[in-house]
Amino acid sequence: xxxxxxxxxxxxxxxxxxxxxxxxxxxxxxxxxxxxxxxxxxxxxxxxxxxxxxxxxxxxxxxxxxxxxxxxxxxxxxxxxxxxxxxxxxxxxxxxxxxxxxxxxxxxxxxxxxxxxxxxxxxxxxxxxxxxxxxxxxxxxxxxxxxxxxxxxxxxxxxxxxxxxxxxxxxxxxxxxxxxxxxxxxxxxxxxxxxxxxxxxxxxxxxxxxxxxxxxxxxxxxxxxxxxxxxxxxxxxxxxxxxxxxxxxxxxxxxxxxxxxxxxxxxxxxxxxxxxxxxxxxxxxxxxxxxxxxxxxxxxxxxxxxxxxxxxxxxxxxxxxxxxxxxxxxxxxxxxxxxxxxxxxxxxxxxxxxxxxxxxxxxxxxxxxxxxxxxxxxxxxxxxxxxxxx
Length: 390
Ligand code: BGC
Fold this sequence. Notes:
Blueprint: E1 2-3, E2 9-13, H1 16-19, H2 27-33, H3 47-61, E3 65-69, H4 72-75, H5 84-99, E4 103-109, H6 115-120, H7 127-143, E5 149-154, H8 157-164, H9 176-200, E6 206-211, E7 214-217, H10 223-238, H11 241-244, E8 251-254, E9 258-262, E10 265-266, H12 283-296, E11 300-304, H13 315-331, E12 336-342, E13 361-364, E14 369-372, H14 374-385, E15 387-388
Residues 15, 18, 154-155, 211, 254, 304, 342, 349, 358 line the site of beta-D-glucopyranose (BGC).
């Protein structure tokens, strides 16, 4: 049996907007009303009201950590006016985790902003730095005592690229200048919040989660393929991190993608793929862990890794294979501190709506009934053994 280090964090992740339901002060809610998403989120999983029974599943699964996020639009529904009620509710949610001995990994911002912020400002405006930092500081003051690991921003490149270059996420811009402004403002506010946490609650490790892909040329001798690899890495893996790399206590990794770069970008034809069409390639998590270790020399938390698999045919094996590669990376010297499967339960998958099913728990969206899948028990076994049987 290949066991993991003693204090290794085994967890699962969710985000507020994708699970809570009825976040009608959020820019994504407005985005949905404009018909930009396949479905409307509406009640989502109703985690906001059902968190206790959902946490019962965590206890059954045996995780020692849980990653969740806070909805800025609930906490600051009007500019500069914070909702005590929302903060109190988040305290209850997080305290419930604490009472179960589950470490809390709290994301401050997982793609969604209040409507007022998006209408009046947006991250491309200079004012965003002060406004977003004020929100981050408020969370540190009011919830910091309950946070074990802080993730200030989830996958910054996603809302930057999709929101400012591709026009697919709010605010729907296709404008490289706004992209660069938003990216530098987001980084600046991150650093300000980082410093504040270090001053007020120095024991909390602080970082972001990064979508970090494994890029390879389809043909190692083709210079165009190699150029695409270079460009892909520069934009997706390095663009944002390069701005904050001196202000991270750990490296947060979200691993989903293996990009084999051909002459016209990613070309993964004829490969084993998920229901999202993403190639299943566990070896890639080993490769990126090694790369990250060499480059950043920081402890790593794998904050997301998951598969859309409605019939639960591939998920158990997917998790086992990725965990095996993580184990190998640890043996080869990478300081990996935790692995979080995305996601505890099926939830609202942004532009794609409710069709993709990432959950260890199946949700019937008509009744909101929850049903653990077979893979729930496969992951439970890994956690119980603190590793894989071999
Ligand atoms: C995001 C999640 C999303 C998941 C699956 C990650 O990039 O953080 O919000 O649901 O990928 O697409």
